[in-house]
Amino acid sequence: MSDKPGNQTPNTPDVSETELRKMKVDELRHEAREEHISGASGMRKEALVKEVAQARQEGAERGQSGDAGSKAEDAEDLGAGPDGGKIRYGDDSSKSLKYSQEITSTDEEPEREGRSLATTHHEVIRQWAEERGGVPATVEGTEHGDHLGVLRIDFRDKDTNLRQVSWEEWFKTFDDRRLNFIYQEQRTDGSQSNFFRLENPEREDA
User: Fold this and answer.
1) Angle CA(109)–CA(131)–CA(171) in degrees, nearest 5?
2) At the N or C end, where does the chain have fewer CB atoms within 10 A?
3) For residue 159, what pLDDT is reported?
4) Structure confidence at residue 63 (pLDDT)
5) Residue 192 above 50 pLDDT?
6) Number of CB atoms found within 10 A of residue 35's CB
7) pLDDT band at 179 (very low <50, low <70, confident <90, very high)
8) What's the pTM value of the predicted model, to 2 decimals?
9) Buried b (16+ CB within 10 A) or exposed e, 59-70
10) Which residues of 48-58 are buried (b: 16+ CB within 10 A; e: fewer)?
11) What span, in angstroms and rounded, lies between the C-alpha atoms of 182 and 109?
């Protein structure tokens, strides 16, 4: 028989869903984020298994066809953005921005636990969000014609007023409005922090 042991999945012959089912839900969600599967944080285990298996199968097929480079393209670094990751200043810059540590590279670390950080670096922001299961979103009902409304990161909690958007849309709006991303990596006790806020240095309301 040509089937691999324990793999009764004709749609994904190169990937064992049986092995994936042995993983914990948190591990599957991490795998899903690695495969750039949107909405993974809200999926149940069986849906995660199917999505991860399908993504891996597609990756295997691309590799066999000599098109492995397209997977690398999917995971391409978003880069720093138009301001090189540097903080944007204006007449209404807040005190918290003044006292925040500026982050302009994915290699930079907080000076201490609980440190307030600030950046405009696209890849820094995306990595921070995805490590916490966050996805780019906008607040429903705040749109201006074809333009996104209030920007948020949706951590898949109980906020049903948020609509998921692409990172491309999110960062275009972020840069057009000259926003800063103020955030924490860790709380003062060393635990992971989801705190962030967006600030427009030209006016109080971001």
Assistant:
1) 85
2) N
3) 60
4) 62
5) yes
6) 19
7) very high
8) 0.61
9) bbeeeeeeeeee
10) bbbbbbbbbbb
11) 15
